[in-house]
């Protein structure tokens, strides 16, 4: 398929590479010349501008951008995608943004006659490189079906979440719960160990009991409990504290707009913000356990 | 085995019955004559006082009491167990109390020459009746081994947690995380649904993602997601809000004594307290989701 | 002075009336014909559009709008104020919005050659009617000086807060602290009374001690402590819960952008959101004490 | 008057000295020989034991002890005060403990025929030395009247709070609000300054607005705002973080027993605990602002 790809950063770059590998024909755009050159070397064509990419003969355009303001700029701007793209081109935004903005852009696309889905991902840069991302997709079922073969070239778990914006809703709800659970796991592990328990024994009990969660059985924040968790390699790699902070910001913003309370979600955001402000924004988010006990390495 | 059993309430009563069923010889005591009569009818002998039970020819005494003050009273009182019991009698306290109190009583027992373990349970009254409780055991490994056959008559998952008090530590740490996760699950489910997602679809996505936890995949607080969860039967049965409140009180108290923060744990306690104060203490603890959306039945 | 006034709602309406009373010549605009008619009857001229008001011969334009999106629309829109206004016209925005948006608009005004200050108010609709508002002003000192006589026709406490946006900063910081203090006061009063103290005695002690704050000595949330506080008239009148919620939303948003934690501020926002979601958004914000004790009327 | 004084620590020592200065005849007891010697040198007599002090010919006994367990031990122990003291001796406990414990001891005293009041203080070691403490007194009005001249030798603000235990209630409620307000003040000051405001200007605005509180106008946590606040001398002196932590522990414990939520109170406790755990327990409690911005000295 002829596909346009816009946004070749840490996530978008490897995703575009996987599309090439799967045999798709790619036209790409990014503000970074180096990022573009990297894809061109792998076989992609470069578009000189967003408008040029929009005006080319692609059948589908995928965007992967940092935040809602960039998505709105790229799609809704005067020389943006919607101003230039033909109505039969399918649009996929894989950026993680708030559901309301996603719906606003999708509504504008529909008004121009374009089919659009939101398809944020989880799985990090590792998943992007390996082609094992999870895609959470919002939009019409038929548009999900049409996009499925393309998304499968970049991920292995492609989930339909319902109408437009619901991909973002699913991601924001899941990640808010993740951010809360991780702090809960950190508090429970640290409390138990400070009261005399061996961390592996404690994790073993929790993992077969009602406190069990992904943050204890797959990504335990206590060093040494799981060999392959960031906690066992100095909290490097993994999912950065500042990325979790961004997602919690989206969750609390969405909650504010929906006039729903998210008490623990908001508190979790503040704790990660405190931890980030102490210079730890680049560490894996499970490092939040260090706020509880400075002695944990 | 000749066993003394002290405390025949909602939990202790069925536990004692299971010991009788397993063929043990039981001497029992409780302040409630009805509770005692019920066990006597099933084949137990009644002791007229704590001191009498302590002075009888039992080989092991099990206690199941509401709170630390009762445990201290029963074990350390002037006519209490330790004052009267022979040194070869093994002691098991299955009450849920704070780890410090558990260790204080165990130390006093050791000074008298008695082997003692703490063995709090999870699984509720249903598990007590069915003999499927989980026991979390603190004490010496040899004493755990000696108690194992007796505990297996009352439960199916008997876990050794390390030195004295660690059974309580494990329970308190697990249940604090549970209390946090449940509110996190309630917030995430309510946020997602208020933003337009179907609750079953959302739960399905979370349960295969990083937000996965027992509170979403086994005990989801949103009505209709899981047929057999309390949420699908009006939040009746299950684990009462006031019981969760008691456990969170133990967790924050233990944290205070250990001088460790439990930020989300303390906030969770306050939210359940607020919910209980609004007249909901008897509902299953997953009903906390109603604080987030009055429209949830 | 010839003044343009844009936004004649619950606050803007009475403010405009006070300008007329002080002898200023007023040209007004609002989407509500009734609001415009009301001012015209009192002696103002009506402008048919924002552009027309901007193009008239006023020396100063004051805006009083609900939220940042309206302020941006009115100032930065294609037919907005900045597109049409002469460079010598002074601009005053009295809306309460986030500091970043205020600075963005002021920067755009400066680029057009217009002097602009942000001047949000406190004092509510009562203060607006009585002309006793507090104005918190951000911008250049000279522009503050030039606006002072006009602001004094609408308020009695006009405070210079420093460079552009600082009026909003001062308001947001003060009101966040107010929102926190009020919940703190509610908790302390409710705790003390539930433990057996007379509410007036308790308030008297706090008000001469280190817990003293405006929320205890001027606006006590406990019914009957202060005769003229909303608590003593069923929490009617005063400063609505949903208005406090809006200000806390601005505070946490500003904090997010500044990457600073506001832990209690964010929690306060969530508690007011919970209270509002239970149907209490129209009550004075001190009614939050009812979340702590349903028995408080 | 002939007075017995028990507990000659950082607070009790200087209080006892002030009683001597006022001309009272003192018999003292403390576990520290040095503390006793210090008072003897100043003219007091030393009692060899609690029982001896209780059995001497004093008309009144004042106790100043670290925590409830010590108060219970001293009053209720086998050789404690109540076992040995004559019924006409008046008892005053100035320790800061939870209200329930205070009432338990007062009830035991009443059963022995002794008049007892609880009279915790605020004002710190500086106030103890200067004789300017505030006493919050619970008990019968007549007993308050009888104690007043003695208390006035040690303090200048002696407040009657109602029935037994209410002195403790007043203190706990006030200090919980103080602990909350201080964090609120820290967040508001730090937010405002990070957004570009001068700290003195911001404090000035808050102090004439609805955010005003003792923590902003008398004890501002931002360095340089108030010359004589601990913030302006590196957070030395003042009221230590660990002392605030103790009082918040009493407040949340009292709330738990009363089954009342104190959401911000509990969160404040956790934040001070986190701050203390990072090695700052000895700093004045206003240093909590450093958790918000490491750049604040």
From TrEMBL, chains A, B, C, D:
Family annotation (Pfam families): NAD_binding_11, NAD_binding_2
Occurrences of domain 6-phosphogluconate dehydrogenase NADP-binding (ranges): 2-162
UniProt-recorded Gene Ontology molecular function terms: 3-hydroxyisobutyrate dehydrogenase activity; NAD binding; NADP binding
GO biological process terms, semicolon-separated: L-valine catabolic process
Transmembrane segments: none
SUPFAM superfamilies: 6-phosphogluconate dehydrogenase C-terminal domain-like (SSF48179), NAD(P)-binding Rossmann-fold domains (SSF51735)
First-tier enzyme category under EC: oxidoreductase
Annotated ranges, domain 3-hydroxyisobutyrate dehydrogenase-like NAD-binding: 165-292
Keyword field: Branched-chain amino acid catabolism, NAD, Oxidoreductase
InterPro entries, A to Z: 3-OH-isobutyrate_DH-rel_CS, 6-PGluconate_DH-like_C_sf, 6PGD_dom2, 6PGDH_NADP-bd, HIBADH, HIBADH-like_NADP-bd, HIBADH-related, NAD(P)-bd_dom_sf
Pathway the protein takes part in: Amino-acid degradation; L-valine degradation
Positions of the catalytic residues: 171
Enzyme Commission number, as recorded: 1.1.1.31
Record field: catalytic activity: 3-hydroxy-2-methylpropanoate + NAD(+) = 2-methyl-3-oxopropanoate + NADH + H(+)
Family: Belongs to the HIBADH-related family.
Protein name: 3-hydroxyisobutyrate dehydrogenase
Organism, scientific name: Halopseudomonas bauzanensis
Lineage: Bacteria, Pseudomonadati, Pseudomonadota, Gammaproteobacteria, Pseudomonadales
């Amino acid at each position: 398929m002829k596909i346009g790809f816009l946004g070749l950063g840490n996530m978008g770059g490897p995703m575009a590479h996987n599309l090439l590998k799967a045999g798709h024909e790619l036209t790409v755009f990014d503000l970074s010349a180096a990022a573009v050159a990297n894809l061109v070397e792998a076989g992609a064509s470069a578009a000189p501008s967003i408008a040029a990419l929009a005006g080319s003969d692609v059948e589908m355009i995928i965007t992967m951008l940092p935040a809602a303001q960039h998505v709105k700029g790229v799609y809704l701007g005067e020389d943006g995608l919607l101003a230039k793209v033909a109505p039969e081109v399918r649009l996929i935004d894989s950026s993680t943004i708030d559901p309301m903005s996603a719906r606003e852009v999708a509504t504008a696309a529909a008004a121009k006659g374009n089919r659009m889905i939101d398809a944020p991902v989880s799985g990090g840069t590792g998943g992007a490189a390996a082609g094992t991302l999870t895609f959470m997709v919002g939009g019409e079922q038929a548009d999900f079906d049409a996009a499925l073969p393309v998304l499968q070239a970049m991920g292995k778990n492609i989930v339909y979440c319902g109408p437009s914006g619901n991909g973002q809703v699913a991601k924001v709800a899941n990640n808010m719960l993740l951010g809360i659970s991780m702090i809960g796991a950190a508090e429970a592990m640290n409390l138990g160990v400070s009261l005399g328990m061996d961390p592996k024994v404690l994790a073993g009990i929790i993992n077969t009991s009602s406190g069990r969660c992904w943050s204890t059985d797959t990504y335990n924040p206590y060093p040494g409990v799981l060999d392959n968790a960031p906690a066992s390699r100095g909290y490097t790699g993994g999912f950065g504290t500042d990325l979790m902070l961004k997602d919690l910001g989206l969750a609390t913003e969405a909650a504010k707009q929906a006039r729903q309370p998210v008490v623990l979600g908001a508190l979790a955001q503040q704790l990660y913000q405190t931890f980030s402000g102490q210079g730890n924004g680049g560490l894996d988010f499970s490092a939040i356990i260090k706020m509880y006990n400075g002695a944990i390495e």
